[in-house]
Amino acid sequence: MQDLFNSLHPVRVLSPAVAVSDDTAQVGQVIDRQGYDSLTLVILTGGLADAGATFTSLVEHSDASGSGYAAVADGELLGTEANASFTQADDDKALKIGYRGSKRYVRLTVTPSGNAAAAYVAAVGVLGHPHVAPTANPPA
After folding, report:
1. Residue range 34-82, pLDDT digits in tens
2. CATH number of 87's domain
3. 3-state secondary structure the chain
C-alpha cells in the first residue's frame, strides 16, 4: 500500500467560516513552498446563493513573502484558472489547480462578481514532495 499521508503538508489558504456577501476579492494566505517541490490548491465551495454570481480564481507568485506578486503564467500551472473558477451553480464542489513554477511564495485570490448574497468559499494548499519526510502531524 502506498503512503500519501507522510508526504503531504496541508496549509490553510481561505478559512471556511468566511461568507462573502459582495464583490470583495478574497486574498488567501501566502504559502511558503520552502522544503517542498509541489503545490496543489484545492478550492471548496459551500452554499452560493446569488443567481448570476461568478467567482474568478487567480494564482500569483513572488520571490518575497510580502510584495512583488504577479500572476502565474499558464505554463507554470497544472490545470487552468478558468477550471478553478466557478459560478453560483457550483454549490458544494471541490476544484483544484496546481503550481509548478519556481518562486518560493504563492497565493490564491478568489474574486466574486455580481455577488450580493452569502457565498461560502474555502481553500487549502497541499504541499507535496517534501525534502524531508515524514511530514509533521499535526501540520505546523
Report:
1. 999 999 999 999 988 878 899 999 999 999 999 999 999 999 999 999 9
2. 2.60.120
3. CCCCHHHEEEEEEECCCCEECCCCCEECCCEECCCEEEEEEEEEEEEECCCCCEEEEEEEEECCCCCCCEECCHHHEECCCCCCCEECCCCCCEEEEEECCCCCEEEEEEEEECCCCCEEEEEEEEEEEECCCCCCCCCC
Q: Which domain holds residue 48?
A: 5-130
Q: Which residues fall within 8 angstroms of residue 105, CB to CB, at 6 or more apart?
A: 30, 31, 32, 33, 61, 62, 63, 64, 65, 69
> Which amino acid type is present at position 120?
Y
Instruction: Report yes or no on 19 lying in a domain.
Output: yes
Domain assignment present for residue 136? The answer is no
Give me the residue label for grid cell 504559502.
Answer: 31
Assigned domain for 137 exists? no
**Which has the closest alpha carbon to 30: 8, 11, 45, 15?**
11
Q: Specify the higher pLDDT residue, 4 or 140.
A: 4
Q: What is the total count of domains within the chain?
A: 1
Establish if 138 belongs to a structural domain: no
